Amino acid sequence: MNTWIEKQRHLIDFTLASLARRKGKNLGLLFIYTLLVFVLASVALYTHALRTEAQKVLAGTPEIVLQRLVAGRHDLIPPGYIEQIGRIRGVQKKEGRLWGYYYDSVVKANYTFMAPRDLKIERGEIIVGPALERSRGLAAGNGISFRSYSGELHTFIIADVLPQNSELVSADLVLMHEADFRAFFKYPEGHFTDVAMSVANPQEIKNVAIKLMDSLPDSRPILRDEVLRTYASIFDWREGIMLALLSAAILAFGIFAWEKAAGLSAEEKREIGILKAIGWETGDVIKMKFWEGLLISLTAFFAGYVAAYLHVFHFDAILFESVLKGWAVLYPRFTLPPHIDGLQVATLFFFTVFPYTAAVLVPIWRAATTDPDTVMRG
Amino acid sequence: MRPAHRALLLLLCLFAAFLLSFADAWRLRTLRAALTHESAVLVERLGLTDPVLFTEARYTRHPSQADLQSAFQDHPVALEHFPTGSLIAPPAGLLEAYEHLDRKTASPD
Amino acid sequence: MLELTNIRKAFNQGRHNEYWALDGIELAIPEKQVTALRGPSGSGKTTLLTILGCLARPTEGRVRLKGEDISGLPERFLTEIRRQTFGFIFQQFNLVRGMSAIDNVILSAYPTGRPRKDLLLKAESLLAGVDLGHRRDAKVEWLSGGEQQRVAICRALINDPELLIADEPTANLDTRLSKEFLAILERLADSGRTIVLTSHDPMVVESDVVDFIVSLRDGKIVDEK
């Protein structure tokens, strides 16, 4: 056992010495390799954390949001519509929601105006999201005017600012009294934007949705599952775009690494001949090369992964955030809790460490099995 | 120290850092769980459906909610095919050129 | 110590350019003696040496080491025998560039898994024995031809081989260095090692150190004395 360990140490010594001989090239390779792992791991860690965070945050979203369509287009819920739904077993609560968008040409951003049901807001007052507070330099007690789509100027007093910690979901919100909302948008009395419903039993949600479609053929229920799936797919899509962009780089590295690892130079071939002539077995040569592949790929993987972890969770993924998060004038500031998918890390490990180590070994197998007497013939 | 030991030590340090990153992730998760919780509470209270990630246009603000121009309209499994207008912000020159289409209000407040 | 019976070696066998480098060699290498293989280039000296050193297999015939037939052994065992029994000094020295002299010396002991400390001690004493103690950490490509050869000799001795094989050891050396090499050769012979070398340098072949001279021509032994 001790001899075995000592022998592996010898082999590592040798492989390091031969790596050191082509220091520039090998360090360059290690750097690019690490960079590649860093980029891939950053993308994977970031999208997974964002996906998980979105799922967690949206877990409490209404089970069903019911919209009404007119000629296939979204329309307001008219008075009496909610009553038409009648009693459906399993539906605990159904209430009309009032919300819409307002485009602020000063900061060139869209706000979401909303009249929440169970939040007490006085008339003439609004509660704003943190991004709004930042972009317009607002604070509680300040006044702000918005010119409505009908051209009138409405002035509001800011009663409160939503907590910074919830910025991921509240950055652009402007919450106001129902009467203010209707007056601002000239929203017809008794009409609503959509209907939010809560269903106690998650198994029942789909059945409830089917019953809704039956009783209101012009309605379109949006289920919580669909909302969550939409987000999963959006981040998958962004991850996919990023990986597609990166695939050229991955291929380029693949060619470079293959060329470097698989192409044996004449000098390396000569060296293998020497080693075999002075008493190294074919297995020793292969083990030595195996260590080379393992040392380089493990170093690149661990260094790249750790750098990616720091980049994503301690430096907020500054390098890729615009692609992965999206861009917007009003962008929420948020820090992601690190949700890490072990399988994803394992996959990354497998696909970075394994191919390189294999690429190093393939040509060696051929070279190492040649007869050692070639070195005698200058 | 012989080269092999130096290399293995380096690898060991990197591996330790790798393991440490998981411990750190656990620490940060507990630390930042409050943030997630606060957002989740607000979502439940106001009945919000979407995070504020894509505010560049009306139809991208709530990708999960059908809107006049949203792609996510009819079929429940039809996925968004343009979740957000573009990956990067439009060039500043374009912004100015199209400013007059901005539903300009001379002085909003 | 080594016995060859009816050794034939063909190159490019079965092709139009097939030729027999060795043709019916019968040879016994005596223990603890210095044997020199002599002959013009193309006579098959080097080919014979590769077969003696188990670097290559004969096409026909048997090789016996201490009475044991080793010509049919698989590569693995052959390598082990080569490592334990033979030490090689090549004409081109075949040192690994970019590594220090001492690292080159211990290179052939790596597969044995002997502790590095022991190997370094051994290598140091070997290098000191050929006046190279002060050059132990120099990269081999910075050494002169004579120094390189002495490093190669040390490498051949690190595993304590019973049999030393040297291919044209003085071909790349001037007269003074050749004399030094002969002195080292004499010391090695006195220490009880069996030595086989090829040479067409009369200074080597006709020196007192050499006990037997085997002359080759066209793949056949023409003279033994």
Walk me through the structure.
The complex is a heterotrimer of chains A (378), B (109) and C (225). With 378 residues, chain A is α+β, with helices and mostly antiparallel strands. Chain A folds into two domains: 2-58 and 230-376, no CATH class; 63-223, Barwin-like endoglucanases (Beta Barrel). Helices cover 54% and strands 16% of the residues of chain A. Chain A contains twelve helices and eleven strands. In chain A, the strands form two sheets. Chain A has a six-stranded mixed β-sheet. In chain A, strands 1, 2, 3, 10 and 11 form a five-stranded antiparallel β-sheet that branches. In chain A, 44% of the residues are buried. In chain B, 50% of the residues lie in helices and 0% in strands. Chain B has 109 residues and is an all-alpha fold. Chain B contains three helices and no strands. In chain B, 28% of the residues are buried. With 225 residues, chain C is of the alpha/beta class. Chain C has one domain: P-loop containing nucleotide triphosphate hydrolases (Rossmann fold, 3-Layer(aba) Sandwich). Chain C is built from seven helices and ten strands. In chain C, strands 6-7-8-3-9-10 form a six-stranded mixed β-sheet. A four-stranded antiparallel β-sheet of chain C has the order 2-1-4-5, with helices on one face. The longest helix of chain C is centred in the last third of the chain and has 16 residues, at 175-190. In chain C, 46% of the residues are buried. The mean pLDDT of chain C is 89.
